[in-house]
Amino acid sequence: MSDWQERITHETAPAIRAEHELRYRLAAPIILAGGSWADLGCGNGLAAAAALGDARPAHALLVDVEEDAVARAAQELAIADAKMIAADLTDPAELRQVRDALLALPAEPVVSCFEVVEHLSSFVPLLEFSVELARDQGVTFVISVPNDAFWSINNPHHRTSWGEGAFEELQQLLPAEHTLMRQVALSGSAMVGWSAAPEVHELAVRVGGDGMVATHFIAAFGPRHGELRAAALAVQADMAEQRRWERERESNAAIAQAMVGEQGAVLRAQEATIAKQTRELREQTAQFDGWRTYIHELERELGRPLAGSAEAMAAEAGGSAGEPPTQQPPPPAEPPA
After folding, report:
1. Euclidean distance between CA atoms 62 and 163, whole angstroms
2. pLDDT range class, residue 31, cuts 50, 70, 90
3. How far apart are the first and last CA of the chain?
């Protein structure tokens, strides 16, 4: 099953794969020039591998919250000197482990952290971690967050929501020297010869200006942040794979809706059972109160202490064993109205 919401897989729509690949392409020149690279939230490694092409950094640190994802990324990237860590980036102790491994890399590493921050229950530990390393240890960071105002959906995997205002607040917490970029979506088409032989087209694309809405926000800081250069990427859409991805997403959504419907029916049945049992309990309580009132009236007529009272319990505990019990008339089948 394709993890269409979050992790990039071979079945992910080409436009979304290109979107992720472009972020790694943005950082690729400084990743490859520096020799050491760390990818926080590496996922399956597909987008990074596509962006780096045949080149690889000499040393790498791959980090993800899921151990299986780290292993797949290491296999996909095939970097000879690669260290793998499964870590929760909100946990200070695990962040220290990542910090130690990062500083053990030779030279001044470049760290990519794409589409990770919004998944964290608290991004403060990671932000403090990255700002301190950029300021004191010469580490360069390139991070991204989605523009939730653009997506206009409630993603259950996102723990924080980002927009222009939230990103501007984040900017205030970054080192004074930093680079900011907006990522925007492109649409297009191409003509090829009837034989469909591969062709290469040089494209000129006008981006930015009024009406532009960013899909993602990019921030870079550290000694090499100024080396980032704006770029664009267009890929041929594999319509068969894209349609398969869309149909699977629709199927997953339908299954989820059916499960919600089934759970709703179960919940409604449970609520009906609770309501029925509540009515029965009230009726039984009323009936018990009627019996208790009737018994107390008989006890008053016979001059006996009322059942359940302290006097009655004391008499019951201290009564003579040889004394015959007082005969009482049997109660009627129904309590008196």
Report:
1. 28
2. very high
3. 67
